[in-house]
Design brief:
Blueprint (H helix, E strand, L loop, with lengths): L1 H10 L21 H13 L6 E5 L5 H9 L4 E6 L9 H4 L6 E4 L5 H10 L3 E6 L5 H11 L3 E10 L5 H13 L4 E5 L8 E5 L3
Parallel strand pairs: 1-2, 1-4, 2-3, 4-5
Antiparallel strand pairs: 5-7, 6-7
Helix pairs in contact: 6-7
Length: 199
């Protein structure tokens, strides 16, 4: 944990304390530092090697940058509609990160087919796109099936976005996953839900 905190501190001021989708400078990480640090530490302490990563809702690419920094990612796939102003920074922030991108609506037939045609599963599927209940639900339906056995479905804004919270609570109550943990910082907070698939 301390080495992860140090790595984040070494990035400062490039990883500022952020919340509610605001961002500035550096890697434009739209995460609360305490939440993402705990999430990364939890994943690194787990029994699953993380080498493949699918992200739905990438914005500036800050979260993808952090995952690439802490894990040996061989395959990184990003889906984003580029509607947020922050997306214009993604090419610069991820300039040294090998990745495949789909630009468009994550709920479109084209996006679903794009991922299907990759013929690949992912150790981490990170959902941070549409925050309204119908959209979050559809993203989970569309992409959670690509989580490898023992891998992780991660949802951002579980504490602050009612639609995300509702979907996350539904998953928690389903009993379909091996374990579920949520990292929620003190104010400001967003919430990161980590859902482990059965191995």
């Amino acid at each position: 944990m301390e080495s992860i905190k140090k790595a984040f501190n070494d990035l400062a001021p490039y990883v500022p304390g952020l919340s509610y989708g605001s961002y500035c400078g550096g890697v434009c990480l739209q995460q609360v530092p305490s939440e993402i640090v705990n999430c990364i530490a939890y994943l690194k302490d787990g029994d699953k090697s993380i080498g493949s990563y699918l992200e739905v809702g990438s914005a500036a690419g800050g979260t993808a940058y952090i995952f690439d920094m802490f894990f040996d990612i061989d395959t990184m796939v990003l889906i984003d509609d580029n509607c947020l102003n922050a997306s214009k920074y993604r090419d610069d922030i991820l300039a040294d990160v090998d990745r495949i991108e789909f630009i468009g609506n994550s709920q479109s037939k084209e996006a679903v087919e794009f991922v299907k045609n990759l013929n690949q599963t992912f150790d981490v599927v990170f959902i941070d796109g549409d925050h309204e209940y119908p959209g979050v639900s559809q993203d989970v339906v569309n992409y959670s099936k690509y989580v490898t056995p023992g891998g992780y479905l991660i949802m951002h804004d579980t504490a602050t976005a009612p639609g995300v919270r509702r979907v996350f609570n539904g998953i928690k109550n389903s009993g379909e996953f091996a374990s579920i943990i949520e990292f929620v910082g003190v104010v400001p907070c967003c919430g990161i839900g980590v859902i482990k698939r059965h191995g």
